[in-house]
Amino acid sequence: MDYYERRAAEYDATAWAHPEGDPRTAEAVRSVLASLPAQSTLDIGCGTGYVSRWLPGDLTLLDASAGMLAIARRRLPDANVVRASVPRLPFADRSFGRAFAANLYGHLTEQQRAELVSETRRVAGEIVILEQVAEDGLFREGPEERELLDGTRMTIHKCYFTVERLLSEIGAGEVLMNGPMFAIVRA
Ligand SMILES: C[S@@+](CC[C@H](N)C(=O)[O-])C[C@H]1O[C@@H](n2cnc3c(N)ncnc32)[C@H](O)[C@@H]1O
Fold first, then answer.
1. Distance 63 CA to ligand 1 centre (A)
2. Which of 37, 59, 116, 120 would bridge 99 by S-S if both were Cys, CB 3.0 to 4.6 A apart?
3. What is the 64 CA–ligand 1 centroid distance (Å)?
4. Domain ranges of the chain
5. How far is it, in rounded angstroms, from Cα 33 to Cα 50?
6. Model pLDDT for residues 122-159, shown as the tens digit of each residue
7. Ligand 1 mutation target, pool 52, 63, 184, most atoms within 8 A of CB
8. Model pTM?
């Protein structure tokens, strides 16, 4: 978690708005999410809210990082903001129409992922997950070294998915996007 707290201020510039990134990737994600029917939505691991603003409907933003949430709050002042660490979700059954997670699910271990899926089923009517796909088409997970702009190196847990693997983990569902770079599935 320390990694994302430390990365908060540089997150947008080094992720979605990366100068070497292809802006068509973000546009493809925006367009898929914006086409979903409006729902009361819990965004789990919302980060800076860069993606959250594309979700139609009332928003509750959840993240474990205070630094990330401070940026998300400025970006989306009308959203509810909750600081919590998943997989447990601090909400009553059926609190939301939709639970959404972008680039969070793949940082969890297999057991945490199973717990989170079970928790999202409890609190929301549907789950939408966005994750990075494996370019070679082979699911893999494990430690990955990352470097912050100040040169600090940190190790995180990271999964690269196939849509088949995502669907099998969240239960049968539909594929809303399969590449480039990201898959979006709904169950
Ligand atoms: C890769 S960022 C994704 C942010 C945003 N969803 C996006 O796609 O731009 C992962 C986010 O998940 C948060 N996070 C990681 N592990 C978490 C946990 N166990 N509980 C809550 N938030 C977590 C981090 O603080 C970070 O903001």
1. 6
2. 120
3. 7
4. 2-186
5. 12
6. 999 999 999 999 999 999 999 999 999 999 999 999 99
7. 63
8. 0.96
